[in-house]
Design goal:
This protein is of the alpha+beta class and 344 residues long. Helix content is 38%, strand content 21%. The chain is globular, with a radius of gyration of 26 Å.
């Protein structure tokens, strides 16, 4: 039988001085911070994906049911998104989890902004091409018309089908935001810094934009990216503004997301996820992979361009842009195989 251990002798506890107590508090706080950060690394991504991913509104049956372009054989795991901004004049939100009106009703909304975005397989680069709303294109089942009519006539499936047939590339995911959501996104990041090179006046919206660099919020930001009247290049100048704004918005989001201000970050991400709707094929794990892959993507890794235009002309009393379809398709073949052209 093992000998019994002697009871430990009791000694009076020494009283800690103020410096020793402060050191103990600091050590406990540091240890707590390390454990908390470890928790963020281990479980934060999963929790954030589930929490915020579940808030993102999903669009059922967003994709067309007919034949679709195949993925390029040398796709290298890249992903292609079609992003749309709709000009619904509904007084109630139509996109995001805060939507209280229908996303689409025949003839009620048109796609005011269209961007086709390809993320490389290693998610280290992105290529974005804007498709002008006045592009005259074939719309399946409707003959030829401006591309923005596709959403008006058939919602997401017809818009996706139109863009896929135009570009010859397959759309993997679809995202959409309306005017309400756009303003909420801008306000969620505390405004977006924009440089206006030359003062401009929009006679349609009755707004002046002074030259200079300043932060734009909801209504002003929306008016800025929507202006085409009063600009020398019209629709093409508007596209440049939209691309400029997107660059700045992405940079602002990256700078605002910080573990040193978790509550502020949570509020911002919460606002963002509540304004956008995506296809129901995009799972929470897809969102997680996207967030993890893009966390190091900077503005220098992103290239922007506009669909190549041959000319403008009047068709049936409408101003239209005629695209160079062969060059457009060649561009997306190169993008799909991992060799995108330099942005314009």
């Amino acid at each position: 039988m093992a000998p019994r251990r002697p009871w430990p002798t009791w000694e009076p506890r020494r009283r800690e001085g103020p410096r020793r107590r402060l050191l103990r508090v600091v050590l406990v706080c540091v240890l707590g911070a390390v454990l908390a950060l470890s928790g963020l690394v281990v479980g934060g991504v999963w929790w954030g994906t589930e929490h915020y991913g579940n808030q993102v509104a999903r669009i059922p049956d967003a994709f067309p049911t007919g034949p679709r372009p195949p993925k390029p054989t040398a796709h290298h795991g890249g992903t292609t998104f079609l992003l749309a901004g709709v000009d619904s004049r509904s007084k109630r939100p139509t996109t995001g989890n805060d939507a209280t009106a229908e996303l689409w009703r025949y003839g009620a909304q048109r796609s005011d902004t269209l961007m086709l975005v390809h993320l490389s397989g290693d998610e280290g680069s992105a290529y974005t091409m804007s498709i002008p709303r006045d592009s005259w294109v074939p719309i399946p089942g409707h003959g030829s018309a401006k591309v923005n009519a596709a959403f008006s006539w058939g919602g997401p499936p017809l818009l996706i089908s139109t863009v896929e047939q135009l570009t010859g590339t397959r759309v993997d995911h679809f995202g959409i935001v309306d005017w309400h959501g756009f303003k909420a996104l801008t306000d969620a990041v505390g405004g977006v810094p924009i440089t206006v090179p030359v003062a401009a006046y929009d006679p349609e919206q009755h707004r002046h934009f002074a030259a200079g660099t300043y932060s734009m919020h909801g209504d002003e930001a929306l008016a800025y990216v929507r202006q085409r009247h009063g600009l020398p290049g019209g629709e093409l100048d508007r596209i440049k503004r939209q691309q400029q704004f997107l660059r700045s918005l992405v940079g602002q989001v990256r700078s605002e997301v910080s573990i040193t201000d978790p509550l502020g970050t949570a509020r911002m991400i919460d606002a963002i996820t509540r304004t956008v709707s995506v296809d129901d094929h995009m799972s929470n794990s897809d969102l997680r992979d996207l967030v993890l892959g893009l966390r190091h993507l900077s503005a220098s890794d992103a290239a922007f361009s506009t669909a190549p235009i041959v000319r403008s002309q009047m068709i049936d009393g409408q101003y239209a842009l005629i695209l160079d379809k062969e060059r457009l398709r060649a561009t997306w073949r190169a993008v799909g195989t991992g060799h995108p052209p330099a942005g314009q």
